[in-house]
Amino acid sequence: MAPETTASTALFTDHYELTMLGSALADDTGSRPCVFEVFARRLPSGRRYGVVAGTGRLLDAIADFRFGDAELAQLESTAVVDADTLAWLADYSFSGEIDGYPEGELFFPGSPVLTVRGTFADAVVLETLALSILNHDSAIASAAARMAGAANGRPIIEMGGRRTHEAAAVAAARASYLAGFATTSNLEAGRRYGIPTRGTVAHAFMLLHDSEEQAFRAQVEKMGTDTTLLVDTYDITAGIETAVRVAGPELGAIRIDSGDVGVLARKAREQLDSLGARDTRIVVSGDLDEHAIAALRAEPVDAYGVGTSVVTGSGAPTAGMVYKLVEVDGRPVAKRSTHKESRGGHKRVLRRHKPTGTALEEFVYPAGTDPERGEHDVEPQIPLARAGVPVDGLPSLDDGRARLRRALVSLPWEGLKLSPGDPAVPTVFG
Amino acid sequence: MAPETTASTALFTDHYELTMLGSALADDTGSRPCVFEVFARRLPSGRRYGVVAGTGRLLDAIADFRFGDAELAQLESTAVVDADTLAWLADYSFSGEIDGYPEGELFFPGSPVLTVRGTFADAVVLETLALSILNHDSAIASAAARMAGAANGRPIIEMGGRRTHEAAAVAAARASYLAGFATTSNLEAGRRYGIPTRGTVAHAFMLLHDSEEQAFRAQVEKMGTDTTLLVDTYDITAGIETAVRVAGPELGAIRIDSGDVGVLARKAREQLDSLGARDTRIVVSGDLDEHAIAALRAEPVDAYGVGTSVVTGSGAPTAGMVYKLVEVDGRPVAKRSTHKESRGGHKRVLRRHKPTGTALEEFVYPAGTDPERGEHDVEPQIPLARAGVPVDGLPSLDDGRARLRRALVSLPWEGLKLSPGDPAVPTVFG
Predict the structure, then answer these.
(1) Vertex A418, ends A358 and A141: CA angle to 5°?
(2) Is the confidence at residue B277, as pLDDT, over 80?
(3) What residues does the Quinolinate phosphoribosyl transferase C-terminal domain cover (chains A, B) (predicted)?
């Protein structure tokens, strides 16, 4: 079996892209200048906004989208394409232009979150890679932003890596952090993206020891008193009593991972206070989603651990984005047969705002036209790559975090509600 | 930014596993012999069976679970663990024993799909990696098996890579193939696992050309008449007429990707037959799931393309498996505080069957006891690794496909229904 990892991203691609390419090279249509747009036809049911994530990962992945010996040998041995196409792929590196919404920007139905310009051949091969990354990462960020909003400033640790593919876990940690989570449990996300990682012990550590007290002693001995003791292995009240006895009132935190965490947090706070551990924080985890977090807002909870719900997009595990050819040789093109048609033509966007800064609409208009611009209108798209090379000074992950905080403040207040509703601002096609 | 790929899987790990490890090494509990079990407390709501997938990937990933210089440097610079623990990790390779359900085997609530024996230190660090792989791959295979059943022998091509993380896409193609899909669009799945890949063109190829006819001609010129022409870009009836005119009645297939595909398939069949293209197959795609596939059973459809629904587990994107410490030094252990408790002790399984071969129950019993065995009872668990090394002759992916076909035949008939219901056989704890 071939190794699981490869430096090239070129085969994260659907077979049909290369067969299309082969045919288009053969009849010379492959050299036609084209515009492809990535957009979501709709938000997941009831969601009021989406959050763009993955753009940074995508630009890295495009740089690694090269067909080396291993990739070419595979395509040759399975006869996916012919010799002419193989020769073209051997020399391929993307040389077109990319514009798009920076990470942390909001998107709405029809927002062109990515615009790829280049020859058909150059741009068509990136379809699957672009969609995989943007659909996954944006789905996670869109869910995570609702959770961060519900947490209302209390920190959330992302701990869902075990509930999703091992590599998706790393990207999910990144997208959650972008969307306002404080930390992650995922060590590879720490290595790859510099995201702060956190963790202390699981129930296995408690059960390994002959008693809860011995487990707490071992942990405090090693990690100091500013650690988080897991108090719900046996009896929570007894666990908290033992925890404070072992660590003293300077104990950093306790974690409750099961049961009705709201009730338990209240009782725990009273007990901790009565034991003099007034600064000991309470961390809760266990099947929390944005609604559970919101329901805990009035409870004395200091931090949340969130797993399954965030890495699976809280009911919407993919963002539903598509990569559509909208322009060939300067003329708009669009599928016409059914309800799935899209609007042809290269588009640009203005997000219109009231003078107060509140967003009014997502105005999507044909590139080359010049709509009236209000003083408070902004263009969400920024240049991402020119002549195939990422532009200088692209926003960092921390820039994305800051951008999202600002963007959420700009939404009409009902746009931040967790309940099902319409998109926070309408998309208007000019 | 560090590269996206790494040969080591060691940091696909939650922070707390290494901090637990550090504490357990310090107080010598880390050397205690332990048994960890992986199981799902329940199936996704209404599902009647689960399908184990990922075991093969997991064994490969465990072989690559080594802490090299890059991993150690990261742990040191972020102070996740101390020098003693780093030294231990530098020498680490798993040296314990693993038994488990082979890929393609069914599982039910409480089925111990994986049993890991070793010292606490040896086994605890594998938790996240094992769960990520098994939870993801089993979720996909469990959904895909229902789709393959609904397709009732008609081939399904997996084409959902663009709707999930780019690396998850490869694993999803593998899990779908294991569960009975015929092919995949994902080229990396072809390279890595030898899964047959398929694809022809997207709507972009149609729109690139000045007319539908020119696009069809270009495709037939390059790929021959035994190709699949996409006929729903403009008007489907006109598209089919043009397709047969260009390719002749020996045209391999047409694909319809939108609209009411049942009605459209029936009309297309009539039209193809009237044009003499009686052997031209009809491929349908576009937001199909197991229910849509089942609804098309009476229609003249020859193959299905399935994307989003399979890579997202059709509503259940994770299998909900947990990795629990169940035995320390030969004594059973279990969390006790709440509803989440698990059954302590190392367990074995007999799947009991009627003389007819129909499965009766999943009988889970304490290892070391010797329950009465019927002639038709089988043990789902097989040895997977001894002294850390995969055993010889482990089942292949094709073996897993065959195993699943046999296993599904063994279910009581109501176990194969798509409608929500109870698990197909009860789990009985002995």
Answers:
(1) 80
(2) yes
(3) 140-309
Over residues A254-271, the mean pLDDT reads 95
Give the contacts of A264 (CB within 8 A, at least 6 positions apart).
Answer: A232, A236, A256, A284
3-state helix, strand, coil in chain A (%, to 5): 40, 20, 40
Average pLDDT over residues B202-221: 97
Do the domain assignments include residue B266? Answer: yes
Q: Are residues B131 and B178 in the same domain?
A: no
**Is A369 found in the same domain as A270?**
no
% of residues, chain B, pLDDT over 90: 96
| Domain boundary, last residue among B314, B349, B370 | B314
Residue of B nearest to A308 (CA): B318
Chosen domain end from A291, A315, A339: A315
Residues of A in contact with B171 (CB under 8 A): 165
Contacts of A207 in chain B (CB under 8 A): 325, 328, 333-335
Angle made by CA atoms A63, A67, A72, in degrees to the nearest 5: 170
The tokens for B34 are 């332990």
Same domain, B185 and B67: no
The closest CB to that of B26, out of A132, A221, A308, belongs to: A221
Domain check: are A206 and A348 in the same one? no
Q: Which of B26, B124, B166 sits opposite A12 (nearest CB)?
A: B166
In the chain, the amino acid numbered A217 is R
- Chain B residues with beta carbon closer than 8 angstroms to that of A137: 165
Q: Are residues A170 and A295 in the same domain?
A: yes
Tell me which residue range forms the domain holding A308.
141-315
Is A16 inside a domain boundary? no
Same domain, B364 and B424: yes
The gap between the terminal CA atoms of chain B, to the nearest Å, is 53
Of A11, A13, A168, the CB nearest to B168: A168
First-to-last C-alpha distance (Å) of chain A: 53
Which residues of chain B from 370 to 399 reach within 8 Å of chain A, CB to CB?
Answer: none
Search chain A and give the residue with CA nearest B10. A188
Q: Is B131 on the interface with A (CB under 8 A)?
A: yes
Query: Looking at residue B413, what is its pLDDT?
Result: 93
Q: According to the model, what pLDDT value does residue A5 have? A: 46
A36 lies in the same domain as A64:
yes
What's the pLDDT tens digit per position in A45-98? Answer: 999 999 999 999 999 999 999 999 999 999 999 999 999 999 999 999 999 999
With respect to residue A3, please indicate whether it lies within any of the assigned structural domains.
no
Q: State the smallest CA–CA distance between residue B408 and chain A in angstroms.
A: 26
- pLDDT tens figures, B18-50: 999 999 999 999 999 999 999 999 999 999 999
Shortest distance between the Cα of A276 and any Cα of chain B, in A, equals 24
Q: What does the alpha-carbon distance between residue A339 and residue B348 come to, in Å, rounded to a whole number?
A: 53
**pLDDT tens sequence across B84-121:** 999 999 999 999 999 999 999 999 999 999 999 999 99
Number of domains in chain B: 2
Helix (H, G, I), strand (E, B) or coil at B64: coil
Cβ within 8 Å, pair B1-A193 = yes
Kindly list the residues from chain B whose CB atom is less than 8 angstroms away from the CB atom of residue A123: none
Can you read off the two tokens belonging to residue B426? 């009860």
Nearest Cβ partner of A338 from B165, B232, B335?
A: B232
Q: Is the pLDDT of residue B340 over 70?
A: no
The pTM of the full predicted model, rounded to 2 decimals, is 0.97
Q: Nearest CB to B26: which of A201, A208, A222? A: A222
CA diameter of chain B: 81
Tell me, what's the pLDDT at B336? Answer: 83
Distance of CA B309 to the CA centre of its chain: 13
pLDDT-derived band at A338 (thresholds 50, 70, 90) equals: low
pLDDT at residue A326, rounded to an integer: 97
d(CA A291, CA B38): 29
Q: For the domain that residue A304 is a member of, what is the CATH number? A: 3.20.20.70
